[in-house]
Amino acid sequence: MKKVILIRTPFVFPVKHFSSITSVPDIGTAYINGTLVKNGYDSCIIDAAGEGVKKRYQIKGTHLAIGGISAEEIISKIPADVDYIGLQSMHSNRWIYDSFILKKAMEKFPKAKFFLGGENVTATYEKILKQFPTLDACVIGEGEETVLELLHAFDNDLPVDHIAGIAFNYNGKLVETPRRSRKRAVDEIPAPSWKGVPVENYLKNCCGINSLARRSMPVMATRGCPYSCTFCTVPNMWDSKWYARDPGSVVADIMTYVSDFGINHVDFVDLTIVINKKWMHEFCDLLIEANLDITWAIPIGTRTENIDKELLVKMKKSGLSRVLYSAESGSKETLDRIKKCLSIDHFEEVVRETARLDICVKIAFIFGFPGQTLLEVFDSFLLINKLAWLGASDIVCLSFVPYPKTELYDELDVDYDYNDPENNIRLNNDIPRMKSWSTHFGDSALRSFIWFFTLYFYSLQFLFRPVRFFHFCKRVFVDKLPLTNFESIIFNMVNKSELKTEEEDVLVTIELDPYEENSRKNDSRYINGAS
Questions:
Q1: Confidence (pLDDT) at 119
Q2: For 332-360, how does the pLDDT look when each residue is reduced to its tens digit (9 = 90+)?
Q3: What's the total number of domains in the chain?
Q4: Can you list the alpha helix ranges (DSSP code H) found in 325-466?
């Protein structure tokens, strides 16, 4: 039985950050692991984030830190007889450390075959293969079927150029195979396997996506998104197709997590879960019938076009406690320019009805889009006022970042150096380093908008609903479980000195080795039988 190790890498974040950063179990890696385990591989995950839930290391000479165990600790956990090593690389800002882990692993295990997958890999495989010319394969897009075919080819020393959805180097040239068609029957994908993941580390530390007081696990009910916003990575990763699982199988997964892990909350990590009202009604009915006494949330964001009062009532009854609605802007001109199909009037009505049901409502705004004018920013400011009055509880104001292989990234002709901490891709909540891509206002103005609008919103909602101020004080100073962005900012400020006195939470400095081009010589890949 071939031995596979899948590495879930630590997250990377600014040392001076303005939110509560926590790691959560990664369901994407678990799906790949589940596919391999079901098909006879001795596959296991090394979850760097989960193994070091409270560990933080600053990368020497940078403003960046990692959350989780270090590369050295990761490598020490890989068994000597490993056959295949897969590395999950989801976010481009993590590549500065992901590449360091990959380099160390390739040096330590020169006979193993290496493959990479994830959203960052799908967007930047050309650069990755240039940096690591002997990497065995990059998996592009949805990965379960591709990884399985790839490892079967490796098992039998077969050519790999017939496998859809991969890229690799051959004789010094980049080879890209055609993209694999998405899996329409999502329920046929084997269930996630959490083998190797320290799930209890997450649960006992209440590591959820803005659900920090709960024992939470992620669930994916749907895949993809049918929309094509110009700033979004979804069209490149998922081909703008939306497929849903059977509602009954989703509820069955939740029941399993309640039984096996004792969870009391579910975070849906779908790109946009509320697309088909009939599907959502059926799911809620089944969840109500199951009577599991859990809450659930939509923390990643969802569309509001298919939400109405009747559906919200049923979602609340089934346990919905928190939802993120992505407005992006209050300006029709901005929304049209970024191809965000949103009716602001309907959006406001949905926020009103959600808040009336005592569901925590978080709203996302993005500033600094190319072409965005000061008048368009003012339109967003007006909407922020109205949303606070309507009952929204939370806000996140982000800067536009041109992510690789998005429509705006191509239009702006951006070129990042993912190994350079100063010319690397910025996080959209890294306020000190935010960049405006609008010609109508600069970086300083962008940062001012985000600071002011955030604080202004919370001031308004406390003014309109004073009881929320007492809830805020209790969560931050008594329970020490912040829930909103503002609570997280205050919590981090108050507990900054306290964290430095706790050995497990100390920010330890680590240093990256200077990059040297990987020169592994035992590459045995071949195409069409020609070595």
A1: 93
A2: 999 999 999 899 999 999 999 999 999 99
A3: 2
A4: 332-337, 344-356, 374-390, 407-412, 443-464
Same domain, 254 and 296: yes
Kindly report the pTM of this predicted structure. Answer: 0.92
Sign of CA dihedral 158, 160, 161, 165: positive
- 3 state SS of 162: coil
In a 10 Å sphere around its CB, with 0-12 CB exposed, 13-18 middle and 19+ buried, how is residue 157 labelled? Answer: exposed
Q: Tell me: the pLDDT tens digits for 220-248?
A: 999 999 988 999 988 888 888 899 999 99
Q: Label the pairing between strands 113-117 and 137-139.
A: parallel
Q: Could you tell me if 156 and 163 are in contact, meaning their C-beta atoms sit under 8 angstroms apart?
A: no
> CA-CA distance, 324 to 364, in Å (whole number)?
7
What is the distance between the alpha carbons of residues 392 and 348, in angstroms, rounded to a whole number?
10
Q: N- to C-terminal Cα distance for the chain?
A: 25
The CATH number assigned to the domain holding 407 equals 3.20.20.70
DSSP-assigned states of every residue in 268-309: E--S---S-HHHHHHHHHHHHHHT---EEEEEEEE-STT--H
β-partners of residue 222 are 244
Per-residue DSSP letters for 473-515? HIIIIIS----SHHHHHHHHHHTHHHHHHSGGG-EEEE-PPPP
Q: How far is CA 237 from CA 123, 373, 404, in A?
A: 8, 30, 11
d(C-alpha 358, C-alpha 356), whole Å: 5
Q: Do residues 92 and 215 share a domain?
A: no
The SS3 assignment for 77 reads: coil
* Cβ-proximal residues to 108 (8 Å cutoff; 6+ apart), any chain: 75, 78
Tell me the average pLDDT across 156-180.
Answer: 95
Rounded-to-integer distance, Cα 305 and Cα 519, Å: 52
Listed in sequence order, the residues at least 6 apart from 502 whose beta carbon sits closer than 8 Å to its beta carbon are: none
Q: Reply yes or no on whether the pLDDT at 503 is more than 90.
A: no
Among 418, 446, 474, the domain-final residue is 446
Write out the DSSP string of 180-237. PPP-S-GGGSPPP--TT--HHHHHHTT--SS-TTS-EEEE--EE--S---TT-SHHHH
Measured CA to CA, the distance from residue 486 to residue 363 in angstroms comes to 13
Supply the range of the domain harboring residue 97: 3-176
Q: Specify if 471 maps to a domain.
A: no
DSSP state of 425: P
Are 143 and 230 members of one domain?
Answer: no
